[in-house]
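Friendly challenge for the regulars: who can give me the C-alpha cells for this chain first? No prize, just bragging rights.
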Amino acid sequence: MSAVTKPLAALQDDWAGARGDARLLADIALAAAQAGLADRARPIVALLERMEPDHPIAAVTRAVAAMAANRPADAVDTLRREAIGRPRGQDAAHGILLVALVAAGQSEEARRLADEVLAGPDTPARRMAATLRPALGPASPSGPGAASAVPARSGAATAAPPFRGVR
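First reply, four minutes later:
Bragging rights claimed.
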C-alpha cells in the first residue's frame, strides 16, 4: 500500500515531527476550510493537533472554516480560546484574528490588534494590519473599561497592552 492510499490516521507515525509535511497538511486543510469544506479538513486538523501541539494551526484552520461559513464571531472565539498565547505561530493567529474581528464588527478590538501588530516586526500579519488599519478609522481612547481581544492571564499584577509580548 502506498503512502497515498494509507488511511490518514496511519500516516501520523510516518509524519511525526516532520515540519515540512505538517506545513503541507496545514496548507491543504486551510484551502479546504476556505473553500467551505470543513468536514473534509477535519481529519487533517486532528492530525495537525497531534503533530504540532504547540502551534495554533489547527485552531486557525477551524477559525478559517468558521469565517467561510459566515460565522466570524465563532472564529474570534476559537482564536481567543485556542490560538492566542501558544508558544509558536502567533503571526498566523493574529492575522486571522484581525480579519475575524473586522468581519464580526468588533472594530475597536480590531484597531487595537492592528496597532499592536503594526508596532512589531515585518510579518504577513503586519502587512495585513497595514492594509486593514486605514479602513478601521481613528483609535478610540482606551481606558480601564476597554476590552481586549486576548483574555487577561490570571495572576497578572498590572494591565499590559492587550497583545504585547504575545508574538
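Residues 8-136 form a domain with the Serine Threonine Protein Phosphatase 5, Tetratricopeptide repeat fold (CATH 1.25.40.10). The chain has eight helices and no strands. Your move, everyone else.
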